[in-house]
């Protein structure tokens, strides 16, 4: 069966973002995808981290969630909804990756565990001072429970993660122990870190766990000047790239996932059964 990753350039206009996502999901369904994955922050990317609080939704209902359910049912398409803001008890939000089946029912919800509280070096200015991009997701996002979330889909058992989670291989090892044959890593990777780490980390997670991997990303420049890396791609269990978007523009990449190929790779290279720890 075919899977698609959707690359977007989301901004601060919720309606415009949903319209962009709708057109791309329709394209994915039109070329035969059974499942399509949206990037992190697909519905909203504001100039400041806390801008997303204005769009927080209650669990199970709201503009974004209702739209996702209706779109999945209309297109008869499984949708992995990158991340959207669902209210947390402390006034922040959870960055929630919600999965909808082809009838529009929510099949799973994963809340981002690892929060991107980092300073990213960005060269030096003409005066010699260091330019730094500072990110503090914890100012607006509450971390999710430290519990792996997996869901059975028509393309295999899917393990959920979001962006910065990619740097923590123990999460993916836990997911493969839950029977996952497929991972999804919706992201808004910064342009700087993406250029040096995106492909390396994705291929490592696919290869070490002998699993398919879907990586839909944000691309281009967003409100506040933030730049994201794009290069949305699909990897096979041997780390081979099945599809990738190279242009820094929204689009769809499509690939067929073959469960027999996955089982054959795991059979001839049984590293997962050789684990000692």
TrEMBL record:
Q: Which residues form the CN hydrolase domain?
A: 1-259
Annotated Gene Ontology MF terms? hydrolase activity, acting on carbon-nitrogen (but not peptide) bonds, in linear amides
Q: Does the keyword field hold Hydrolase?
A: yes
Specify whether Translocase is a keyword of the entry: no
Instruction: Report the superkingdom from the record.
Output: Bacteria
Q: Which UniProt keywords are listed?
A: Hydrolase
Specify one Pfam family.
Answer: CN_hydrolase
Q: Where are the transmembrane segments?
A: none
The UniProt entry's sequence similarity note says: Belongs to the carbon-nitrogen hydrolase superfamily. NIT1/NIT2 family.
Q: PANTHER family under this entry?
A: DEAMINATED GLUTATHIONE AMIDASE (PTHR23088:SF27), NITRILASE-RELATED (PTHR23088)
Q: What is this protein called?
A: Carbon-nitrogen hydrolase family protein
The top of its lineage is:
Bacteria, Pseudomonadati, Pseudomonadota, Gammaproteobacteria, Nevskiales
């Amino acid at each position: 069966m075919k899977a698609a990753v959707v690359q977007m350039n989301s901004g601060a206009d919720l309606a415009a973002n949903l319209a962009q996502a709708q057109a791309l999901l329709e394209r994915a369904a039109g070329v035969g995808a059974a499942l399509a994955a949206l990037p992190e922050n697909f519905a909203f990317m504001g100039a400041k981290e806390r801008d997303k609080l204005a769009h927080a939704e209650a669990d199970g209902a709201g503009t974004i969630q209702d739209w996702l359910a209706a779109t999945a049912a209309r297109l008869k398409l499984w949708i992995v909804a990158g991340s959207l803001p669902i209210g947390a008890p402390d006034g922040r939000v959870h960055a929630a990756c919600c999965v909808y089946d082809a009838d529009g029912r929510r099949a799973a919800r994963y809340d981002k565990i690892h929060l991107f509280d980092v300073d990213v070096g960005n060269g030096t200015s003409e005066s010699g001072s260091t330019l730094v991009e500072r990110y503090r997701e914890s100012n607006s996002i509450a971390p999710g429970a430290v519990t792996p979330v997996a869901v059975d889909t028509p393309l295999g058992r899917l393990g959920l993660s979001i962006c910065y989670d990619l740097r923590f291989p123990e999460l993916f090892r836990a997911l493969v122990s839950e029977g996952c044959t497929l991972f999804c890593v919706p992201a808004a990777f910064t342009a700087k870190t993406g250029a040096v780490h995106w492909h390396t980390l994705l291929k490592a997670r696919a290869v070490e766990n002998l699993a398919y991997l879907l990586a839909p990303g944000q691309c281009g420049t967003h409100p506040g000047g933030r730049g994201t890396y794009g290069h949305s791609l699909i990897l096979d269990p041997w780390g081979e790239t099945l599809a990738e978007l190279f242009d820094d523009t929204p689009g769809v990449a499509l690939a067929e996932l073959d469960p027999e190929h996955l089982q054959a790779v795991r059979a001839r290279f049984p590293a997962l059964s050789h684990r000692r720890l």
